[in-house]
Design brief:
With 286 residues, the chain is mostly helical. It has helices spanning 2-18, 32-43, 47-54, 57-60, 82-101, 105-119, 126-132, 137-145, 150-171, 175-200, 207-227, 232-235, 241-257, 264-284. Helix 3 crosses helix 9 (150-171) and helix 5 crosses helix 10.
């Protein structure tokens, strides 16, 4: 009896210690449906479209497209690590968005083809992804052929958002799909942070740069809120779930403490931390 009490108390202590690291005061929930509902609230219902539109701030801030800040198109698809492949999917989709902001349609299309023909087939959830289809090629073609047309760009963003919502709906009953979605979201978060801070680290702080930084803090908060819906057994399915939270929460806190008005030293430290995270996945697949 004493042994049982000891085990129970130890379990309670572990749960108490694990979840506060996420930096938000939400109580964890315990099933896929609730986690998917939270994911829908954070990323569905037009939220992804809003995030995609916010990337236009890069141009307003006077920043540029640099191919060196995107993932290589060769080698990564051959990786055998499922978590890394899922993370790369998220990173590559951000690379697509980055290219589209600067009307680099050929570059964007090459990445899209790589993800669909090389990465997706190697994923454990390849069958599920195939069953959900892809964004209507007509919508993609109109946007690619008319990159300056705001109507076509908005249609593209809405179509992508609807596709993501299909993924989330499936994740309500498919744990493998849920793990993929969380890994992909993390990859998108890391790549976005890497590009923003690489481009802005040496720029003079002004309203546009501050807006870019605070926007990244909001994205980190969204991901932390999503992680806070997971209980311990679900978190264990995600590679380094606790470590992820411990690494990105301080970045969010630094940005928000300074209301986005980061010193160059702060920006350099954040960039170094993000580069370490990004490189850790690239190094898995060398």
């Amino acid at each position: 009896m004493k042994r049982i009490k000891k085990i129970v108390l130890t379990s309670v202590f572990v749960l108490f210690m694990v979840f506060p690291v996420y930096g938000d005061n939400q109580q964890p929930e315990s099933n896929l449906e609730k986690t998917a509902e939270k994911m829908m609230a954070l990323y569905g219902n037009g939220k992804i479209a809003e995030m995609m539109k916010a990337r236009e701030q890069l141009k307003k801030a006077g920043l540029s497209y640099q191919a060196s800040l995107t993932l290589p198109l060769e080698g990564l698809a051959d990786c055998s690590n499922q978590d890394a492949l899922s993370v790369f999917c998220g990173m590559y989709w951000v690379d697509v968005g980055y290219a589209n902001v600067f009307h680099k349609t050929k570059e964007a299309q090459r990445v899209v083809e790589l993800v669909r023909t090389q990465l997706h087939p190697r994923l454990a959830v390849s069958r599920q992804l195939k069953s959900l289809g892809i964004v209507d090629p007509k919508i993609v073609r109109k946007m690619m052929e008319n990159p300056d047309d705001l109507k076509f760009r908005e249609e593209m963003r809405e179509a992508v958002n609807k596709q993501i919502e299909k993924y989330i709906e499936l994740a309500k009953t498919d744990s493998a799909m849920m793990v993929f979605m969380i890994n992909q979201s993390y990859g998108a978060l890391v790549e976005g942070l890497y590009q923003i801070f690489s481009l802005a680290v040496n720029e003079k702080i002004g309203p546009e740069i501050i807006s870019l930084f605070t926007n990244q803090a909001d994205k980190i908060s969204r991901f932390l809120e999503l992680l806070n819906t997971l209980v311990e057994n679900e978190l264990e399915q995600i590679a380094d779930g606790e470590q992820r939270a411990n690494m990105i929460a301080p970045i969010r806190d630094t940005i928000m403490t300074n209301e986005g008005k980061l010193s160059q030293d702060d920006a350099k430290r954040i960039l170094a931390d993000i580069k370490t995270i990004r490189d850790s996945y690239l190094n898995l697949c060398k």
